[in-house]
């Protein structure tokens, strides 16, 4: 005679289910809501730390970014636009590689060697070449230097399937040490070369920031066209979706990887030139200031869309500068600005997860077993 024994089958409390494609406007409502909630949380945390009102916090942020626009002073506004343009330029530079699923984490080093090439030309050729020729040489040398720094890991990836993330990260450290050595030789052991006048990019009126902003805006439009309406952009998309499919349809994957990283590195080198020859007129190991790493998040959060990256870059720089002003006024640690930016990035990344997946909860079920 058999006995029936009832047992409990344990199942996970919940599991993840991939959503059907969400409508684009619904996805953007979720993203906007995430940003708003993140900004509210930043304001609330600031209130707890500073004992100031919510509106006072954001007024301080506004003043820290834009100054007093109502008085006609636009200096701080242009500085904000300059920083936004530099971050946007680096984000645009890494986007073709990311869309191809080549994880280029070396924008920092590629921009730094581009800036170093600019500085060498400014010092060595400043009193040798006429100004138009000098500017052309600075431009070409910076672009070529960045392209070389970008193509080295691409060649190893294409030929030997090396890990591009580690390779490009290590190239950042090599670039930093090269700049440090150059500073030791040229600067007499100092950590920074004093500003030089030869080879500075031309100003628009008395504004040294406007040209950089205009150049990056032009690159934004060109990058959008390149990614969405060119043969190269199509090949980048196919390789990113599946290298096997790309090979099946006749695309030379190795060639696409190398060519794309030349473009990515060249744009980083151009941004390095804009920093050194356009605004700073000097160089040190912190010239790029970590924005090459921030650009990774901006590119990803912008869904590889150059125009969305404009908004994301502007938001990140606003939070960075505004939170730094709050920290300075209220005696907080200087890392408060990084925390504020990190909160917003965390919320945006989190919302992308919920756009793609939903959570399904289980209930414990009984099952009869003989």
Task: Give a description of the structure.
The protein has 13 helices and 4 strands. It is mainly alpha-helical. The protein has a domain at 90-308. Strands 1-4 form a two-stranded antiparallel ribbon. The protein has a two-stranded antiparallel ribbon with strand order 2-3. The radius of gyration is 25 Å and the shape is globular. Mean pLDDT is 87; it is low at 365-370.
TL;DR of this structure?
The protein is mainly alpha-helical and 370 residues long. It has 13 helices and 4 strands.
Give the key terms.
370 residues, two-stranded antiparallel sheet, 4 strands, globular, disordered C terminus
Explain the layout of strands and helices.
Elements: E1 5-9, E2 14-18, H1 24-50, H2 54-66, H3 75-99, H4 107-125, H5 131-160, H6 164-186, H7 210-229, H8 231-241, H9 243-248, H10 253-280, H11 291-301, H12 306-330, H13 336-356, E3 357-361, E4 365-369
Helix pairs in contact: 1-2, 1-13, 2-12, 3-7, 3-8, 3-10, 3-11, 3-12, 4-5, 4-6, 4-10, 4-11, 5-6, 5-10, 7-8, 8-10, 11-12, 12-13
How many strand elements? 4
Q: What gap, in angstroms, lies between the N and C termini?
A: 11 Å
Determine the fraction of residues in helical runs and give it as a percent range: over 70%
Average pLDDT for all residues: 87
Low-confidence spans:
365-370
Alpha carbon gyration radius: 25 Å
Beta-sheet strand percentage? 5-15%
Major beta sheet summary: 2 strands, antiparallel
Number of helices, where a helix is a run of at least 4 consecutive DSSP H or I residues:
13
How would you classify the helix and strand content by structural class?
Answer: mainly alpha
Helix and strand string, N-terminal first?
Answer: EEHHHHHHHHHHHHHEE
């Amino acid at each position: 005679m058999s006995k029936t024994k009832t047992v409990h089958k344990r199942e996970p409390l919940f599991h993840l289910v991939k959503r059907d494609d969400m409508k684009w406007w619904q996805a953007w409502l979720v993203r906007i809501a995430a940003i708003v909630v993140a900004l509210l949380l930043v304001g609330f945390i600031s209130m707890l730390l500073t004992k100031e009102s919510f509106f006072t916090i954001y007024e301080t942020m506004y003043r820290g970014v834009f100054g007093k626009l109502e008085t006609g002073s636009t200096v701080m506004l242009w500085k904000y636009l300059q920083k936004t343009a530099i971050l946007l330029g680096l984000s645009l530079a890494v986007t073709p590689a990311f869309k191809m699923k080549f994880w280029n984490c070396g924008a920092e080093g590629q921009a730094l060697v581009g800036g170093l090439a600019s500085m060498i030309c400014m010092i060595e050729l400043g009193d040798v070449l006429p100004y138009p020729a000098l500017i052309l040489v600075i431009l070409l040398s910076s672009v070529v230097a960045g392209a070389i720094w970008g193509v080295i890991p691409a060649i190893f990836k294409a030929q030997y399937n090396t890990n591009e993330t580690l390779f490009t990260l290590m190239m950042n450290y090599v670039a930093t040490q090269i700049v440090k050595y150059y500073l030791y030789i040229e600067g007499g052991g100092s950590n920074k070369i004093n500003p030089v006048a030869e080879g500075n990019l031309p100003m628009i009126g008395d504004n040294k920031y406007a040209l950089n902003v205009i150049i990056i805006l032009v690159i934004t439009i060109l990058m959008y066209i390149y990614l969405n309406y060119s043969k190269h952009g199509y090949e980048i998309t196919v390789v990113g979706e599946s290298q096997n499919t790309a090979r099946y349809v006749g695309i030379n994957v190795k060639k696409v990887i190398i060519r794309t990283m030349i473009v990515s590195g060249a744009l980083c080198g151009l941004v390095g030139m804009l920093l050194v020859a356009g605004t700073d007129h000097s160089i040190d190991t912190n010239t790029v200031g970590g924005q090459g790493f921030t650009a990774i998040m901006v590119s990803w959060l912008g869904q590889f869309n150059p125009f969305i990256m404009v908004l994301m870059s502007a938001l990140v720089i606003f939070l960075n500068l505004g939170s730094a002003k709050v920290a300075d006024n209220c005696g907080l640690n200087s890392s408060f600005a990084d925390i504020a930016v990190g909160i917003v990035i965390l919320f945006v990344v989190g919302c992308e997860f919920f756009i793609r997946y939903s959570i399904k909860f289980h209930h414990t079920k009984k099952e009869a077993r003989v």
